[in-house]
Each structure stands twice: as C-alpha cells, then as structure tokens.
Amino acid sequence: MNAQPKLPYAPDSLAPFISERTVSLHYGKHTKAYFDTTQSLIEGTEYQDMPLDDIVRNSSGILFNNASQAWNHVFYFFTFDPEGAREPEGAFRRKIEETFDSVENLKETMKEAGKSLFGSGWVWLSADSRGKLIITQGKNAESPLTEGLTPLLTIDVWEHAYYLDYENRRADYIDAQWNVIDWAIVGQRYNNLFENL
Ligand code: MN
Predict the structure, then answer these.
(1) What is the CATH number of domain 20-77?
(2) In what order do the strands lie in the sheet with 121-127?
(3) C-alpha of residue 157 to centroid of ligand 1, in Å
(4) What's the 112 CA to ligand 1 centre distance in angstroms?
(5) What is the DSSP letter of 34?
(6) What is the value of pTM for the model shown?
C-alpha cells in the first residue's frame, strides 16, 4: 500500500468549520496511527504489496479495522477544499434530486443518519453498480467497499472528528461540513462510475 498522502490544503484552511487543531490531530495523529498500525500488520504477509482498498476488501479483525480506518480517513479528508464547489451540478445533481427530491433533503437525510448512529462510525453516500444513490451508516470502521458499493461522500461521526470544535454537538458539526465539502470532487467520483463500466 502507499504511504499516507499529504493533504492538498493547509491545515488551517478549513477553519472555522474544522479547526487547524482538529485537522492536525485527526489527520496527523489519528489517521497516521491507522496507517502505521496497518503497515506493521502487513509486513511479511500476503497483504504486503496490496493496494489499501484491496486490503480492506480482503481482511478481517484488527487488520481490517486499521486498514479501513486509514482508507476512510483519506477519503474523508480528500473531499474537502476550502475553495471548492458548494453545490453539486449537472447529471449528478439531477440524480440527487431524482433520488432525494432535493440537495437539501440529501443533507438532512445524512444528518439524521449521523445523529441516529449510536457510538462511533461513518455516514456514507454511495452508488451501487447501476449508479443508484444510497445513504448508509457504518459502525466503527465499516466500509461500503465490502458491500460492493462505490463511496462518493462520507462524514466521520467518531467523537474525535468533532469534539474539539463542537464538543457534544454532533448535528452542528455535520451541518458545518457542507461549508468545506467540494461537490466537484464528489461529482467526479460519481462520473468515474460510468467511465469504468
Ligand atoms: Mn476519524
């Protein structure tokens, strides 16, 4: 697997929605620890030369937990752009409106999924192999990759993602995500589905 990639934006550039301290701790410490542990677990095993997403699809137990958390965090942090598009566009927007009635309703549905997830986990917007959009909750390190889905967007609802900035207010943290999520990146992930058919 590849090393943990460097973020394409400055750690203070998502503030005030996600603080520099949270980005530094969450990506620099939590995510790094998942990468370091995965690396130490795969050394000298059949997983050694596997891409990270294949490790996630083919492992279980402690290796799955760490590899999946490494993958999930890179996916999460690489959806942000302080200068990004704040609205989905084109065919992807029409698909959202057809599925959820409106972009607002998609956001509300993801927020409700995040609020009602008990304990630690992730809220996902994914597409199935036919391009149908689906929102799911994942506990702990669970991943849509193991369900045969293509992840498009995720919100980390582990407490470490929001406690420094929002204390116990998980819903406020989820609302704030929409100020830093780049819909052009999410839309590109959706469009890639059809290029790969
Ligand atoms: Mn996290």
Answers:
(1) 1.10.287.990
(2) 133-139, 121-127, 150-156
(3) 7
(4) 19
(5) H
(6) 0.96
